[in-house]
Write a structure and sequence with these properties.
The chain is α+β, with helices and mostly antiparallel strands. It has a single domain (5-259), classed as Fumarylacetoacetase-like, C-terminal domain (Fumarylacetoacetate hydrolase, domain 2, Alpha-Beta Complex). It is built from 6 helices and 13 strands. The strands form 2 sheets. Strands 1, 2, 3, 5, 6, 7, 8 and 11 form an 8-stranded mixed β-sheet that branches. Helix 1 crosses helix 2 (35-49). The longest helix has 15 residues, at 5-19. It is globular.
């Protein structure tokens, strides 16, 4: 029997978006029992906000805290994906936490049968391009101790917006990039720039590709060419404020900016 709380939680999140007012998670404590139920909430929200958007989204957020942790993946709303340099002064964020990431773009269609057996090396060959991105992390939930991981997952993994920089072709030379030595910086407002080297949680942003592709194709749908996935933060989640200019840069890849 379908969990009746799935639809109620979706309506709570939709109301929070309409009213620009975070909802109280205490009303929904322990109502979701699995990742699949949280993903079902995501899908109801997506269908309400973007009914014209394809079931297999063009943009995805994926990541995990380590290679041993469970990978979580969420389709993003096209309306919240912007090209750098982006202006977000009027966007109604409840909070503005910053993740700087590498996004990867697929170079051809991937079927469920192919995804089921992909090795890491085979998945790397599916990369057509990569870009520097800034994710603005936001939440439709009040930030209280009642905010459980499954409620965060239901809320698009607390996704707010994604800013995408210029795409760089993924060449044979790029396949040899040493991600353990990759340097990146983020500058938020007037604060000094912060530098990070080799700080990706899975050591290599490409590592998640076969797992992400298996998740996306689990319901029998293929992943179209040109599908884009972000791969996890290099900087943690530092806070930004309204009016801040956020600039992210990855050596040898590019830079991206958003004006909040």
């Amino acid at each position: 029997m379908t969990n009746p709380h799935i639809a109620a939680i979706a309506q709570t999140l939709l109301a929070a978006r309409r009213n620009h007012q975070p909802a109280d998670p205490a009303l929904h404590v322990d109502q979701l029992q699995s990742n699949d139920e949280a993903y079902a909430v995501q899908e109801l929200v997506r269908k309400e906000l973007a009914p014209e958007q394809a079931a297999v989204g063009r943009y995805w957020k994926s990541g995990a805290s380590s290679r041993e942790a469970s990978l979580l993946s969420s389709a993003l709303l096209d309306s919240g994906v912007w090209t750098s340099p982006a202006q977000a002064r009027d966007w109604p964020f409840n909070m503005r936490l910053i993740e700087i990431e590498i996004a990867l773009k697929t170079n051809r269609l991937v079927s469920p049968a192919e995804a089921a057996t992909l090795t890491h090396e085979q998945a790397h060959a599916l990369i057509g391009a990569m870009a520097v991105t800034i994710e603005v992390v936001d939440s439709r939930w009040q930030q209280t101790e009642q905010l459980q991981p499954l409620l965060k997952l239901a809320d698009l993994q607390t996704h707010g917006a994604l800013v995408v920089g210029n795409w760089m072709p993924y060449s044979a030379q790029e396949a040899e990039r040493d991600w353990a030595r990759q340097r990146c910086t983020v500058k938020i407002g007037q604060a000094p720039a912060q530098e990070f080297v080799g700080t990706h949680s899975m050591q290599d942003p490409r590592w998640l590709l076969p797992f992400w592709l298996r998740q996306v194709t689990a319901n029998g749908a293929s992943v179209p060419a040109g599908t884009i996935v972000t791969t996890g933060t290099w900087c943690g989640v530092p806070a930004a404020q309204p009016g801040d200019l956020v600039v992210a840069s990855f050596d040898g890849v590019g830079m991206t900016s958003v004006q909040l």
